[in-house]
Amino acid sequence: MKEIIKKYWGFDGFLPLQKEAMDCVLSGRDSIVVLPTGGGKSLCFQAPAMAMEGVAIVVSPLISLMKDQVDALSECGVSGVRIDSSLTGKEKSEVFSRIRGGEVKIIYLSPERIMMGEFIEFLKDTPLSFIAIDEAHCISHWGHDFRPEYRQLGRLKQSFPGIALHSYTATATDPVRKDIARQLGLTDPEVLVGSFDRPNLIYRARRRTSRINQVCGVLEKHQGESGIIYCIRRRDVDDLSAALRQRGYKASPYHAGMTAGDRKENQDDFISEKIDIIVATVAFGMGIDKSNVRYVIHTAMPKSLEHYQQESGRAGRDGLEAECILFYSGGDFAIWKSLMRDLDPDPARIGIEKLGRIYEYCTGITCRHKELLAYFGQSLEAENCGACDVCLDELTLMDDPLVIAQKILSCLIRLRQRFGGDYTAKVLTGSRDKRVLENSHQELSTYGLLSEFSLQAVRGWIEQLISQGYIRKGEEYGVLTVPESGWRVMRGDETPRLLRPPEKKKARAAVSRAIKDSWEGVDRDLFEALRELRREIASKKHLPAYIVFGDASLRDMARKRPSTGTGFLLVTGVGDKKCRQYAEEFLELIKDYSVSHGLELDLNLK
Ligand code: ADP
Ligand code: ZN
User: What domains are defined for the chain?
Assistant: First the structure.
């Protein structure tokens, strides 16, 4: 396997569990492989397919995904084909004769097609190595993306007796895993579950103050890089993408209210890197394999942590650092709640529970990686992840949280636990708000107790106390009450954590190793020049840029600066075919650039 992944894909080693997953395929044992997005699932079946007799079948749910994978394989010199409804009759018969001629190693198919009678007959005359099922959670009702056509795959075992089935998914939950095994009728499958942590993603959550300013603040750090910005509503998508264009950003909108043609055009522009930014509703993302998305911004809170993990997870699939930042406000909670109004009681209850969990995540001040992992039932070993706003110490804490919390809690009690967060904050900061005066609350002993702080700061602390369980917020009207844990704070037995309101900036803390290393020794301007060359080649060949080379390969070129074909082969992601195809153009650029900038060539070549 090691030789194969070097020769075709230009990789030097395995990602976690890849080797184990490949062993299952090679030995013919059914398997369920659960790895996060970017975990390298495709290689688990593609590499063994090259080593085994016969042809491998891969079932995949979307034409766009299949096309991407087959293009990528062909760039690596692996002979793969896809058979789907977009092929013309002529193309189809060509593909069939290539399969009969024995030159094909991997066939991508939709679930509908593999179960068609005549197709099964055709495949029965073709020696098969194994069947791989990508996005296998689509077979389960429990998953987030059930597809009825996947249910038919339950008959694969009867139709292809003796052929091993291997299933791959990024969905972590145990019921889904069990369901996959049951639905597919797997025989004593090996189950491999990787860690769901994505150490290269930097997670941040901030209260939303000004959508456009906060978004632009993030974009400034990512000039010219690809990113996705999610909004809840179509209107917000249109407004924001127009505002960004006006400021000179290459951004386009994407939502279900646009025509299919417009949507496709914007998506293609994003993939071919004609534009940098896609502003979208959740309608965008499924089937997008773009590996070098460098940031995902949520301009509002998604409706669950599952959604957040999925949407933010579209960043950094290539394993290089990427930023995931979420701008939330209490109002988002209300929007989602009103959208759930028409649901039946059970789904509505679950929906609101999930909203509560993600709101806690937003306002919480424990490590974001830990929080996300805990939600999916895993834990993080490292004390400090080095890749979230909490661990990077970007959130500075108040020195006297106990006193502040006690002032807030006693105000709630003076208010007889009958008011919400906004109102309470007004009383504490000594507001002359009409309602406050009408209620004569300026007479309370707690009135103006925190008047040296802004309304927003106090409002924020109230949320933080809610998320830490020291204040309870009523479901219906958001009335705040003090539970037993709040009384422990009142007595001084427990001390909550409260954030310093964002004013003074502190020096940046240590960034995680995984993130620092990926830029180590890389000449950034050379990297930019290489990106430009990649863009030209991709557009000439009508291929997504990241299929020509991933960002990891370009960085490695800008680091090693090889001057010969042999040196070029040592760059990560450069296999035999890519070396033959591209060495000349890239080597020339590297050499010209290095000579004119006085940079040394052939560094760190092993
Ligand atoms: P998944 O399908 O699990 O989301 P992919 O198969 O798309 O993940 O792989 C994610 C990224 O990791 C891709 O950019 C791929 O080129 C890279 N990759 C996969 N296996 C390896 C490896 N063994 N060494 C280096 N990079 C790898
Ligand atoms: Zn952390």
Answer: 2-193 (3.40.50.300), 201-375 (3.40.50.300), 401-504 (1.10.10.10), 521-596 (1.10.150.80)
